[in-house]
Structure formats: structure tokens, C-alpha cells
Amino acid sequence: MAAAKVRKAVFPAAGLGTRFLPATKAQPKEMLPLVDKPIIQYGVEEALHSGIRNIIMVTGRGKSAIEDHFDVSFELENLLESRGKTELLKIVRQVSDLIDVSYIRQKEALGLGHAVLRSQDLVGPEPFAVVLADDVIDSETPCIRQLLDIYEFFGAPVLAVMEVPPEAISSYGCIDAEPVAHNGSKGKVFRIRDLVEKPKQNEAPSNLAIIGRYILTPDVFDSISQVEPGSGGEIQLTDSLRHLLRSRPLYAYKFDGKRYDAGDKLGFLKATVEFALQRRDLGGPFREYLKSLAL
Ligand code: UTP
Prior knowledge:
Elements: E1 8-13, E2 33-34, E3 37-38, H1 39-49, E4 54-59, H2 63-70, H3 74-82, H4 86-93, E5 100-105, H5 112-117, H6 120-123, E6 128-131, E7 135-138, H7 143-154, E8 158-163, E9 173-182, E10 185-197, E11 208-216, H8 220-226, H9 237-244, E12 251-254, E13 258-261, H10 265-278, H11 283-292
Parallel strand pairs: 1-4, 1-6, 4-5, 8-12
Antiparallel strand pairs: 2-3, 6-11, 7-13, 8-11, 9-10, 9-11, 10-12
Helix pairs in contact: 8-9
């Protein structure tokens, strides 16, 4: 039987963003601009280019900034129209015209699992993607599209993973998994044996870190409801997936592409520099400027 189609993507964006204070005191980190677009727009465009246009945002503080960004701005659009700024008008409308966004609030930042659970009524009884927008991924095929291909083949939840240096694994959820041959290659798809959130380096079962892209099935909501708060006193999605593993297989996919942790200052700076260098309008002069610095 064909796997049910994934039509919705949940964007948890209610975290406190403490690593980016004070910039995140009054606005979510998802609204920080990467070159000239808020971080969250990269994730929304990734969903859109993967065939998903139903977007569910789980927001906390700074809700209005995210809502306003994806809403129509009559004042601004009228002004741009009257001044004949058609290119800018196109840019402003580009994404909001193509997506259908709903919002739900997570009143307290009780963890990623809890944030995903808040989306249950809007998701309903169907599979869905989860996008942590502060993980920005640069790839030829959108990362969500890559995961959807694996989901459609195995008919089971799929998490994006990447290899990290051993000393970095304690910052991530980590999987214990066995490689599964798929499409003639081995070492890209894994069947998960176990998952652990932020393991100590010497206790980590692998160097495969879970990053912020998931394809999940609606039974995950039951699992989230049943787990106790874990690492950091938060309801963790990783713990919920561990619970889900008791009742169904889960897969992981080592995606093609480069991931930036834009919720971290250094990661954000790296993404800013590399995205700017790739831009047709900015890349040339920016490269010249970087070369001129006495580094
Ligand atoms: P992070 O682990 O990056 O936490 O959350 P954070 O609170 O946002 O940031 P720091 O570590 O304090 O700087 C991963 C993702 O889960 C969301 C965040 O918005 C981010 O997209 N999240 C986390 C929630 O929506 N609610 C929560 O309670 C926790």
C-alpha cells in the first residue's frame, strides 16, 4: 500500500533562543535575517520546493513578527505598486502567496516534543514533516524532499541525520542504527535500533546526530503524551521517538547537503558568509571585500 501523502509541515518556533541573546529577547531567532530573508523563510521555501504548502507554525514570543512576515502587507504592497517597484513587490509576495499558514501557540517552552504535540489538532490523522528552521540546509534537492523519498519507500517515519565529530555528539540527539541497502547504496539509510538525547561522548552509540528535519506519522502524538520530561527538564522529541520505536520501525537518512546551525552565533555567521558568497548580486563584491581583510 502506498504511504499516505505528506501535505503539512510543522515549524516549532517557540524556543527561548538563549544562545542568541540579546537579539532574541523580543523576537524569535527564526526572524533573524540570513542575508536578506528571515531564517524561517528558508525552511518554508524548502517545504514548498518539496511539495508541501500547508505550514503550521508553533510560536511563542514574537508571534506577531512571524505572522506579519507571512501575511499580506497592504500598506507596503500598495506603496511598492504606486512607486512601480515591481521586482520588490514580487519578492515581498513570493512566499506568502504560495503557502497556507496556521498558527498555534506554545505558552511555555516545555520542550520540542511538547511544541510538536501542540500541533496535533491542526495536523490531524495524517503524516507530517517537522522543520526546525534554525537548522538551515543548503542542498541541491531540498532536504525534506530527500526524506519524503525515503518515507514513501519504507512507509515509516524518517529522521535526517549527519555525522558529527565525537566531541560534538553530546549537543544532539543520537541514533544507534544499522545501515540498510537502498537504491544500490549502503550507508545512507539506517534502520534505527535506539535513540538517545544529548548522550555523553563516551556513551554515544554512534556519531550520527539527528538534525532538524523529520517525517513523522500521527501515532507520534500518543508517544509524546506518554513520555516524561527528559534532558534539561523538557519533553524531548527524541524520547518520544524512542517510545514510538516500540510499536513501529523508524528510519534515518544521511541527507545530501550542508547544514548550518543558525541558532548558534558562529553557525549563523558561517551561514551568512556562505549564503552571501553564493548570491549573484552580492557574491562578487563580498568576495573582494573578504579578500581585502588582513586575516
Ligand atoms: P533549541 O534546542 O535550539 O532551543 O530548539 P531554543 O530554546 O530554541 O534555543 P537555545 O538553545 O536556548 O538557544 C530546537 C527547536 O525547537 C523549538 C525551537 O524554536 C527550535 O526550533 N522549540 C524548542 C520549541 O518550539 N519549543 C520548546 O519548548 C523548545
